[in-house]
Amino acid sequence: VAPSTQNQALQAILFLYKEILEEDVGWIDDFKRPRRPRKLPVVFSKDEVRSILSRTKGVYRLILHLIYGSGLRLSECLRLRIKDIDFERRQLAIRNGKGNKDRITLLPDILIPHLRNHIRNTLDIHQNDLKNGLGTTTLPYALKRKYPHAETEAAWQYVFISKELTLDVTTGKQRRFHIHNSTVQKEFKQALRKSGILKNGSIHSLRHSFATHLLEGGYDIRTIQELLGHKSIKTTQIYTHVMSQGSLGVISPLDN
After folding, report:
1. With contact defined as beta carbons under 8 Å apart, do 64 and 53 qualify?
2. Which residues are designated catalytic?
3. What are phi and psi of 80, to 5 degrees?
4. pLDDT digits (tens, 9 = 90+) for 98-130
5. 146, exposed or middle or buried, with CB in 10 Å at 0-12, 13-18, 19+?
6. What is the C-alpha separation between 111 and 244, in angstroms, rounded?
7. CA 222 – CA 217 distance, rounded (Å)
8. What whole-number distance in Å separates Cα of residue 59 and Cα of residue 189?
9. Disulfide check for 34: which of 3, 60, 147, 212 has CB 3.0–4.6 Å away?
10. Mean per-residue pLDDT over the chain, rounded
């Protein structure tokens, strides 16, 4: 069975003995936890990326361009708040990313005018919500108590807000959350199908492509590690195996 199934079964057994039977099983000797086999990521060529993105439209086009251009995860992109974008420095601040880590990544120059225009539209919607007694957003951790008025401030609003208001069951308030990830995934799948590219890729493949194309462009792997937010350089090194000429730039003797 899959490693995840084995781990789940082990945890179930340990829970049974500890919480139900109340018996101490002690140390389990000669047992190795199964690990997932490392698989090579799906990577699109630059032409394939352009083909896919050209078949998207509206806000989804901007989101997917930003994911590829900045090396973001989908969740990181959708959770961006207006205050996290630094147009002067051409930077994005990623808050509470994978592993609950913050990092800084680049903001492509070509997307700046489109992003500025989108944020203006977002702020117009926010101002209209405020006039109607709405305009609050969710805040991480205990910031609601620390900054009671922050939930209505423009800086804390999501960049990619949803068109519809949602009822927050914890407070009973109507809030405007960010776009749901499933709608972006659906748009990407349609664009991938229309492009005719026969790869089992996903939105995350755009992040893989970002890293691979930077490596192929000669950028230092440590720099790419920082941009991606990888804890270990070993995680970033996997992209050397999917470069166009391999990790050592080797050319097949058949091509010589």
Report:
1. yes
2. 73, 98, 204, 207, 230, 239
3. -60, 135
4. 888 899 999 999 999 999 999 999 999 999 999
5. exposed
6. 26
7. 14
8. 15
9. 3
10. 90
